[in-house]
């Protein structure tokens, strides 16, 4: 299967996918990595792995719709079976989601539907929950509202700050994302009344 991965930052989830894709039995190849900004480690990880990259910046487009169209075209050029938003910090537009309907997944650093949005780890900590984790889900038009594919939990410790909690979450998020993408591409999936079934 062909994957396009979208990133905005460090790209450690991308790296886990790049590493998994080395094994042909994994069943996927990353055909391109896209970003909404330059000069990020995520793009450098792709370049080091010999994977093509592209950057589509909001500020280079007159409107958000024009950005959405440009991102859609850039991703479509690689004809992905699955698009993986892995730390991509922009809300995908209507055109994008229509073009890749039902084939876009995201990883989120909280147990959805709790703490959607940009600061999932921080808001879980501030709320005072004792367990948090991460969620792999399909992307719909809302913010972190699409059908849930898989989740993993971590404890919240008394002396955590945002960084320590987020790092503990990311340690389980990377294998969850790799495992989830692998199962999706190898086994296929159905979604019925929001409930995702793999295989
Ligand atoms: C992940 O925790 C992702 O869920 C969140 O941002 C982080 C990205 O990490 N939205 P990385 O860029 O993959 O290292």
TrEMBL record:
<keyword id="KW-0808">Transferase</keyword>
<keyword id="KW-0658">Purine biosynthesis</keyword>
<comment type="function">
    <text>Catalyzes the transfer of a formyl group from 10-formyltetrahydrofolate to 5-phospho-ribosyl-glycinamide (GAR), producing 5-phospho-ribosyl-N-formylglycinamide (FGAR) and tetrahydrofolate.</text>
</comment>
<feature type="binding site">
    <location>
        <begin position="89"/>
        <end position="92"/>
    </location>
    <ligand>
        <name>(6R)-10-formyltetrahydrofolate</name>
    </ligand>
</feature>
<feature type="binding site">
    <location>
        <position position="106"/>
    </location>
    <ligand>
        <name>(6R)-10-formyltetrahydrofolate</name>
    </ligand>
</feature>
<feature type="domain" description="Formyl transferase N-terminal">
    <location>
        <begin position="2"/>
        <end position="179"/>
    </location>
</feature>
<feature type="site" description="Raises pKa of active site His">
    <location>
        <position position="144"/>
    </location>
</feature>
<feature type="binding site">
    <location>
        <begin position="11"/>
        <end position="13"/>
    </location>
    <ligand>
        <name>N(1)-(5-phospho-beta-D-ribosyl)glycinamide</name>
    </ligand>
</feature>
<dbReference type="InterPro" id="IPR036477">
    <property type="entry name" value="Formyl_transf_N_sf"/>
</dbReference>
<comment type="similarity">
    <text>Belongs to the GART family.</text>
</comment>
<dbReference type="InterPro" id="IPR002376">
    <property type="entry name" value="Formyl_transf_N"/>
</dbReference>
<comment type="pathway">
    <text>Purine metabolism; IMP biosynthesis via de novo pathway; N(2)-formyl-N(1)-(5-phospho-D-ribosyl)glycinamide from N(1)-(5-phospho-D-ribosyl)glycinamide (10-formyl THF route): step 1/1.</text>
</comment>
<dbReference type="Pfam" id="PF00551">
    <property type="entry name" value="Formyl_trans_N"/>
</dbReference>
<feature type="active site" description="Proton donor">
    <location>
        <position position="108"/>
    </location>
</feature>
<protein>
    <recommendedName>
        <fullName>Phosphoribosylglycinamide formyltransferase</fullName>
        <ecNumber>2.1.2.2</ecNumber>
    </recommendedName>
</protein>
<feature type="binding site">
    <location>
        <position position="64"/>
    </location>
    <ligand>
        <name>(6R)-10-formyltetrahydrofolate</name>
    </ligand>
</feature>
<dbReference type="InterPro" id="IPR004607">
    <property type="entry name" value="GART"/>
</dbReference>
